[in-house]
Design brief:
The longest helix has 15 residues, at about 105-120. The protein has one domain: Aminopeptidase (3-Layer(aba) Sandwich), CATH 3.40.630.30. The protein contains 4 helices and 7 strands; from the N terminus they run βααβββαβαββ. The chain has a 7-stranded mixed beta sheet. The protein is α+β, with helices and mostly antiparallel strands.
Length: about 170
C-alpha cells in the first residue's frame, strides 16, 4: 500500500472534517456527553485554516484516509487553554477506523516532524485526551514525553488533555 502525504486542498476540507468526526467517534462511549460535545466542536472548528497552519492529508488510491494539522509555534492552538508555545504542535491527528494499523498515523507524524525540523525547530509538541490510550501509546513510541505543566481541563469534568513534547 502506497501512502501519499500532501497538503490538503480547499476542496478536501469537508471530507477532512467528516473523516475527523468518524475517527474520533470511537471515544463517545468512554467520555461524558458534554466532553464529547466540546471535543466535537474543537475537531470541527476552522482553527486549521489559521495562517501558518499546515493541514496535511494521507491518501491511498486517491482516498483520504487520515489527516493532521501542524500548528506553528507561538499560535493559540487551543483557544486560550494553553500559553503560546515555542514549538509547533501536532493537532487533530485522525485516521478512519478501517484504515488503522497500516502506518497512516505514523506517516503523518513523520511528516509533521520533518516539516518542523525543516523550519529550524528543535522540538515538537502535541496534546491528547487522557482517554485516548492508543494515541498516547503511539506518541510514546515516537519518543514524546509528558509536559504536565501544559496540561489543561477543557470541560471541567476531570478529563485532562495531556501535553507531550519531543526533541527533533
Amino acid at each position: 500500500m502506497h501512502i501519499t502525504i500532501r497538503n490538503a486542498k480547499k476542496e478536501d476540507l469537508l471530507e477532512v472534517r467528516k473523516l475527523r468526526l468518524v475517527a474520533y467517534e470511537d471515544h463517545i462511549s468512554s467520555i461524558p456527553e458534554e466532553h464529547w460535545k466540546a471535543l466535537k466542536k474543537a475537531i470541527s472548528s476552522e482553527a486549521d485554516q489559521k495562517t501558518g497552519v499546515d493541514l496535511i492529508v494521507a491518501e491511498v488510491n486517491g482516498n483520504i484516509l487520515g489527516s493532521v494539522a501542524l500548528f506553528p509555534a507561538k499560535t493559540d492552538a487551543y483557544e486560550g487553554y494553553v500559553d503560546e508555545l515555542d514549538y509547533p504542535e501536532i493537532r487533530v491527528l485522525a485516521v478512519i477506523p478501517q484504515a488503522r494499523g497500516k502506518g497512516i498515523a505514523s506517516a503523518l507524524i513523520e511528516e509533521c516532524i520533518q516539516r518542523a525540523k525543516a523550519k529550524g525547530y528543535s522540538g515538537i509538541g502535541l496534546h491528547t485526551g487522557s482517554f485516548m490510550k492508543d494515541a498516547i501509546a503511539l506518541y510514546e513510541r515516537y519518543g514524546f514525553e509528558r509536559l504536565p505543566q501544559h496540561d489543561f481541563e477543557p470541560a471541567n469534568d476531570g478529563i485532562i488533555v495531556k501535553a507531550f513534547w519531543r526533541s527533533i
